[in-house]
Design a protein that fits this description.
Layout: E1 2-8, H1 12-27, E2 30-32, E3 41-46, H2 51-68, E4 74-78, H3 79-85, H4 88-92, E5 96-100, H5 108-116, E6 122-124, E7 145-149, E8 151-152, H6 163-167, E9 171-172, H7 175-187, E10 192-196, H8 213-221, E11 228-232, H9 241-249, E12 256-258, H10 266-271, H11 278-289, E13 296-303, H12 310-323, E14 327-332, H13 350-373, E15 379-388, E16 393-398, E17 403-407, E18 420-428, E19 433-438
Helix pairs in contact: 8-9, 12-13
Bound molecules: S-adenosyl-L-homocysteine (SAH), iron/sulfur cluster and FE3-S4 cluster (F3S).
S-adenosyl-L-homocysteine is lined by residues 49-50, 160-161, 163, 198-199, 233, 235, 260, 262, 300, 302, 331, 333-334, 336.
C-alpha cells in the first residue's frame, strides 16, 4: 500500500486545494496517514503571502527530513511557494523531488509515475487553465461545510502581493459546473457551501449563461436543501450593489461580507495600487449598512506599507471606528519577491510597524466588545460545530460567521455537528458570544 502525508498552510483556497490533492491521490491508490514518519510520500502545501510564511516552509521541510531519518521518502512542495520558487526549491531543499503549483494538481498522477520510474526532480508549474477546476476526486475534510472554487488567480496588481504570480491570471469556472457541484454537494447532505476565489466578485461566467457574481450566488442559493451560502474574498473595486440586493432577497445567502480595505488613507491606497479611494470603499459599506439585514462586515489591514506616515495610520484608525468591523485580520507589511512595491524605498521601521499593529488591534478589540454586546438578548440560529469538553459548551456559528458558544436548556436533546439550533445570546466577549439553546 502506498501512503502519503499532507500538511497545509495558507488560505482557504489552499485548504480546498489539498482536498483536491487528497482525492486525486486516493483515486490513485494512495492512502493518507497521520504523520510524516509513516508516509512514503510527504507533501507540503505552502503559502507565500508574507516572508514568515515562506521561511516556515524551508524550516518545516528540514524538520520533515530530520524526523524521517535515512529511509527513502519522496518529498513534494505544492502551492504558492512551489509556484513562486519553482526549481530553486531543489537548491534550497535538495531532498525535495516534486514541486507542483496549484494549477497543475490534476497532473499529479503522471508526475508521481515519473518519480516512480526513477526521475529525481519533477515539476508541474504550468499555469495552464484547462483543468484547473477538475473536481471529480475532491475528498472533503469537513463533513458539514463544503468549499467550491468559482474563480482562480488574480488580475489585480496590488503593489505588495504575490498572489497574481503564485496563482496566475483570473480564470472563472462555468456556472453550470459550479451549480452541478453545488447540487452534488447538497445531495451528499451538506447544508453549507462557501464559494471561493481571490476575488469572487470579479467572477465572469465563461459559458453562454454569462452570469456575474451576484447572479451565480443567487443561483447557488436556490439549490434545494442548502441552508447557508458564503463567499470569500471580495475586492472593493468589483463589489457591486447587486450582491447586497441578492442577500436582501434570499436568506440562504449569509449576511457576512469580508471586504479587505488594507488602509484608510487615500495616499497609501494609491501607493498600494488598490484602485479605489476611501470614499468609494465607504460607499460600499453604506450599502451594507442600509441593507434590510444586519450584515457582519470584516476586513484585512496592512500596517507599515512603504511611505505610511503617522497621519496615514491615523486615517486607518478613524476608518475602523467609522465602519465598526465585526472582526479584522491585520498584518505588518512584508516585502515580497517580484512585487511592484519592491521599487519603493520609504520603509517603515519594524518596531514602528509593530507599534502600529498593536494600537490597531487594541482599538479593534474595543470595537468588537461593543459590537458583540449589542447581540445580548437576541436569538440566532447556529450551525453546531462540536462540543468543547474544556468549557462544557457546544460551539456553533451564526450566519454572520460569529462563534456562539451555548449550553442546552432543561431536557433538550444533544445536537450533532452540522445540525442547526436556535440560541439566545446571554453574554458577549471580544471574539465570541455565549448563550442558551431554546426550542424553535
Ligand atoms: N485577494 C484578497 C487577499 C488575499 S491575501 C484580497 O484582495 O482582498 C490576504 C491578505 O493578506 C490581504 O488582504 C492582505 O491584507 C494581506 N497581505 C497580502 N500581501 C501582504 C504582504 N506583502 N504583507 C503583509 N500582508 C499582506
Ligand atoms: Fe493580492 Fe490584490 Fe489580488 Fe488580493 S486583489 S490577491 S491583495 S493582488
Ligand atoms: Fe497564501 Fe497562496 Fe493563499 S500565497 S494566502 S496560499 S493564495
Amino acid at each position: 500500500m502506498r501512503t502519503f502525508y499532507i500538511e497545509t498552510f495558507g488560505c482557504q483556497m489552499n485548504v480546498h486545494d489539498s482536498e483536491k490533492v487528497i482525492g486525486t491521490l486516493n483515486q490513485q491508490g494512495y492512502s493518507q496517514v497521520e504523520t510524516p514518519e509513516e508516509a512514503e510520500l510527504v507533501l507540503y502545501n505552502t503559502c507565500s503571502i508574507r516572508d514568515k510564511a515562506e521561511q516556515k516552509v524551508f524550516h518545516r521541510l528540514d524538520q520533515f527530513k530530520k524526523a524521517a531519518g535515512k529511509n527513502g521518502k519522496v518529498y513534494g512542495v505544492l502551492g504558492c511557494v512551489a509556484q513562486q520558487e519553482g526549481e530553486r526549491i531543489f537548491d534550497r531543499a535538495p531532498h525535495v523531488s516534486l514541486v507542483v503549483g496549484s494549477a497543475s494538481y490534476t497532473k499529479l498522477p503522471e508526475l508521481l509515475v515519473q518519480i516512480e520510474s526513477g526521475e529525481r526532480r519533477v515539476t508541474g508549474l504550468s499555469l495552464d487553465t484547462e483543468d484547473t477546476f477538475e473536481t471529480a476526486y475532491t475528498r472533503r475534510d469537513n463533513p458539514n461545510k463544503a468549499y467550491i472554487t468559482i474563480i482562480e488567480g488574480c488580475d489585480k496588481a496590488c503593489a505588495y502581493c504575490v498572489v497574481p504570480m503564485t496563482r496566475g491570471p483570473e480564470r472563472s469556472r462555468t456556472s453550470e459546473s459550479v451549480l452541478e457541484e453545488a447540487r452534488k454537494i447538497a445531495a451528499d447532505g451538506y447544508t453549507e457551501i462557501q464559494l471561493l476565489g481571490q476575488n469572487v466578485n470579479s467572477y465572469r461566467d465563461p459559458s453562454p449563461a454569462g452570469m456575474n457574481f451576484a447572479q451565480l450566488m443567487n443561483a447557488v442559493g436556490q439549490v434545494p436543501c442548502l441552508r447557508r451560502v458564503r463567499f470569500t474574498t471580495s475586492h472593493p473595486r468589483a463589489f457591486t450593489k447587486d450582491i447586497i440586493d441578492a442577500m436582501d432577497e434570499n436568506p440562504v445567502l449569509c449576511n457576512h461580507v469580508h471586504l479587505p480595505v488594507q488602509s484608510g488613507s487615500d495616499r497609501v491606497l494609491h501607493a498600494m495600487q488598490r484602485l479605489y479611494t476611501r470614499d468609494e470603499y465607504l460607499r460600499r459599506i453604506e450599502w451594507m449598512k442600509n441593507s434590510r439585514r444586519n450584515i457582519a462586515i470584516t476586513t484585512d489591514i496592512i500596517v507599515g506599507f512603504c511611505g505610511e506616515t503617522d497621519e496615514d495610520f491615523e486615517q486607518t484608525l478613524r476608518l475602523i471606528e467609522e465602519v465598526e468591523y465585526d472582526s479584522m485580520f491585520s498584518f505588518k507589511y512584508s516585502q515580497r519577491p517580484n512585487t511592484p512595491a519592491l521599487g519603493l524605498t520609504e520603509h517603515v521601521p519594524e518596531e514602528e510597524k509593530s507599534r502600529r499593529l498593536t494600537i490597531l488591534q487594541e482599538k479593534q478589540r474595543g470595537i468588537q466588545m461593543r459590537r458583540n454586546a449589542e447581540y445580548i438578548g437576541e436569538r440566532h440560529e447556529v450551525m453546531v460545530e462540536y462540543f468543547n469538553q474544556a468549557t462544557g459548551q457546544w460551539v456553533g456559528r451564526t450566519a454572520q460567521n460569529k462563534t456562539l458558544n451555548f449550553t442546552l436548556g432543561e431536557g433538550m436533546a444533544e445536537p450533532r455537528a452540522g445540525e442547526y439550533r436556535d440560541v439566545v445570546v446571554t453574554r458577549s466577549g471580544p471574539n465570541s458570544l455565549a448563550g442558551e439553546a431554546v426550542r424553535v
